[in-house]
Amino acid sequence: MAKQIIDDRRYIVIPEFRHSIGKKMPTGDVLSEEIVVPGRRLEFVEVRLEQTVDGLRPDVIGVTSDGIEILIEVYVTHAVTGDKRERFAKKNLVELDLSMLPQDLVTNEQLFAEEVLSEASREWISCQLYREEIKAAHQTLHEKVKRFITEHRAGVEQAKIERQQRRLAEQAAEKRKVEIESRKSRLREQYSRQLEQLQTQTSDQQRQEPRLDSGTLQAIVQRLRRDELPAALAHEQNGDWIFRVHRTVWQAFIYERFIQGNSRNSLRANDVKRAVVREFGLVEWIAELIKLKHKQKIQGCNRGQWYGKKGVWFFTDAENRMIPSPYLLVLNYLKRLAREGLLTLEHRGGDSFTVKFDSFSALDGYRAEQAEKARLVELEGENAALELRKPVRAEPEWQRLAEIERRKKYTEDNEKRIAHLLALVNSLFVKKGVKDVKRCNHCSHFQELTDGDSCKECNCSKLWDIELTSSYLETLPHRLRCLPLFPPMGAGRREHG
After folding, report:
1. Against a cut of 0.90, is the pTM above it?
2. Of 146, 161, 190, the domain-final residue
3. Does 296 share its domain with 432?
4. What is the pLDDT along the chain (497 residues), one digit of tens a residue?
5. CA–CA distance from 247 to each of 44, 329, 467, 497 (Å)?
6. Would residue 489 count as lying in a domain?
7. 181 and 122 assigned to the same domain
8. CA 431 to the chain's CA centroid
9. Does residue 394 form part of some domain?
10. Pairing state of beta strands 93-97 and 121-126?
11. Is 399 inside a domain boundary?
12. Is 397 within the bounds of a domain?
């Protein structure tokens, strides 16, 4: 029935043709080319049924207009055998598979015809229709292989060149490394003595520092008109041994040159550092290392090299860190004075300062004033609390007025007493030129050193030695007002143990 349909209709849809070819390269890569020809309708000018060809009889032979024979085997119960596959290997043989069609479709003439002509499964057992396409695919594959081999050889050669270049670069780098290490060793040898001394100086047990003799210390204290050396002039830092003098000497120099008597003066750390170095100099061997480190940092920055931030390229990082910076020593000391209250840092993270108090005496006076204000505030708070706890009662008007008058007179008497003491000190200092006096701890009377060991006013034996410096005289009115109220003048002499 299927054969008759093909004979009647004189066409059939031949299946899709697929053919792959490939070649394995020495590298293991596989190059391939695939031919894919979609299925299509093929018209026949002649159809022969059950005709013997080469000893075998296909079900249908369709002949195209150009004389090409298409052999068709209809598979209902038996597929094409291996013998037929071999015998028709050089023919155009299509197997039409109707073995799985349901019975109701087979009995429907129209649907069955559609299955036979185009819809049913079909495959090429052998095909010679597309020899030119296969030949073109072989030529394309040949070009691929040729191109692959050429590129592979070029890649192998390029890899060889790159390996050679890397080897040469590694050899050059190794040679450069050896040269750098050799140069590094030679340069380090030039500074071996200084590096040994640096190692010694950074050891707490072996460090040698400039000494401060008692005569120098006493001279500084006398110049400052102080009873003892202020703690701010004995500020210790790691590396402050680089100056040729004891830390107290150069710190006193900074105080006397840039702060004392220079109220509101502005100063920069670098300018102060230059002045200190000019005045006292640096220990010779460390000065060489400091200069070398500074020069190397500038050179490194100009060349964009790593040692622009660290220092000497042929020193270790630890050795570079051990070399102290005069600038940082001075900057940190000025920050110490700012914390003390003498200076004000103009900008956070900067190195410019303004003199806030031009002497330790002025700073002491300010602190005393602030302390007194705090004391009075605290006292007022305590008095207010006491008043709140007192029972509320009406105070007679005469009593309130009497208390006001008493306090007023007491304050006036105290101001007269202060004026009397200021006049006394002025007469001693200006008229007689006396600079060293004694002050009574009880009544604050001032008298000369030759007036005995007890107060001429109240006979108190507790007297303080006072040096009448300019800063002391400036702050004396405030000092006297911060003391408890004085006994009235002419209150009589009293004995004190």
Report:
1. no
2. 190
3. no
4. 888 998 999 999 999 999 999 999 888 999 999 999 999 999 999 999 988 877 778 889 999 999 999 999 898 888 888 877 888 888 999 999 988 989 888 889 899 889 889 998 999 999 999 989 999 999 999 999 999 999 999 999 999 999 999 999 999 999 999 998 899 899 999 999 999 898 888 876 567 788 888 899 899 988 988 888 999 999 999 999 999 999 999 999 999 999 998 877 899 999 999 999 999 999 999 999 999 999 999 999 999 988 888 999 999 999 999 999 999 999 999 999 999 999 999 888 889 999 999 898 888 888 888 888 888 888 888 888 887 777 666 667 788 788 888 888 888 888 888 888 888 888 877 677 888 889 888 888 888 888 888 898 888 888 888 888 878 888 888 888 777 655 544 444 333 33
5. 118, 10, 27, 44
6. yes
7. no
8. 67
9. no
10. antiparallel
11. no
12. no
Contact present, 471 and 363 (Cβ < 8 Å): no
Which of residues 156, 172, 190 is at a domain's end? Answer: 190
C-alpha–C-alpha distance, residues 341 and 102, integer Å:
109
Residue type, 229: L
267 and 327 belong to one structural domain: yes
Check whether residue 68 and residue 98 sit in a common domain.
yes
- Long-range interactions of 452-456: CB distance < 8 A, separation 24+: 454/496
Burial of 222 (0-12, 13-18, 19+ CB in 10 A): exposed
254 touches 271 (CB < 8 A): no
Is the distance from CB of 236 to CB of 268 less than 8 angstroms? Answer: no
The whole domain housing 412 covers: 405-497
Q: Which residues lie across from 32 on neighbouring strands?
A: 22
Output the 3-class SS for 332-386. Answer: HHHHHHHHHCCEEECCCCCCEEEECCCCHHHHHHHHHHHHHHHHHHHHHHHHHHH
Length of the chain: 497
